[in-house]
Design brief:
By secondary structure, the chain is mostly helical. It is 72% helix and 5% strand. The chain has a three-stranded antiparallel sheet. α1 packs across α3, α4 crosses α7 and α8 runs antiparallel to α9. The protein is elongated and about 55 Å long. The N and C termini lie far apart (40 Å).
Length: 207
């Protein structure tokens, strides 16, 4: 297996909780399971650490990143509610024809996942990241883009654990944001992003 294949296989294990949140990761055990030497496993884990899916512990190896606590999740959404509605409003104000076309194309190509596995969820996860990053880009904000990139995987791990049935609702909300940006309506775009984030947080509350 290539390093990219090993990376994706381990990421799927983490996202599907085949390796539980906060669990110790065995390099030798993963190498045996995947039929590879330890070297590509180490390289894959280094990449996963940069994405904050695993953390290294001096002299102890790697652990998967623990799930966010409810308080941490609430803090994260409070932070996103400060910056992303603003970004959506700015995108509506300043997006040109090319930018609006990119946003429309992203929405047109998106599909909700049809199964409760990371393999099925992966395409939606990639769409979700691209959509929010594109809104930040259209707003002209590198800071918002970088902030979203730092927090994105923590949210997707949490979503995988608590509620994988978010695709249809989230896509409908993305479409409302897109419609407002396309219309050049910053007030509506700001409100649509705020409603999306509030609904997203509510869907992640444990039942």
């Amino acid at each position: 297996m290539l390093v990219d294949d090993v990376h994706e296989a381990i990421k799927a294990m983490i996202m599907d909780h085949g390796i539980a949140p906060g669990a110790r990761v065995s390099i030798d055990g993963l190498a045996r399971e995947l039929g590879v030497s330890p070297t590509p496993v180490r390289e894959a884990l280094a990449r996963l650490e940069s994405a904050q899916l695993v953390v290294s512990e001096p002299m102890r190896g790697y652990r998967t990143t623990p799930l966010l606590t409810p308080d941490q999740l609430a803090d994260l959404y409070r932070f996103r509610l400060l910056i992303e509605p603003w970004a959506a409003g700015r995108a509506a104000e300043r997006a040109d024809d090319a930018g609006r076309a990119r946003l429309a194309a992203e929405i047109a190509a998106a599909d909700a996942p049809e199964a409760d596995t990371y393999a099925a969820y992966r395409a939606f996860s990639a769409h979700d990241a691209r959509f929010h990053l594109l809104v930040a880009e259209l707003a002209g904000s590198d800071q918002v883009r970088e902030a979203f990139e730092r927090t994105n995987w923590h949210l997707h791990i949490y979503r995988q654990y608590y509620d994988r049935g978010i695709g249809p609702q989230a896509l409908a909300e993305h479409r409302r944001i897109t419609d407002a940006v396309q219309a050049g309506d910053p007030t509506r775009a700001t409100a649509a992003m705020r409603a999306h984030l509030e609904s997203s947080h509510a869907r992640l509350q444990p039942t």
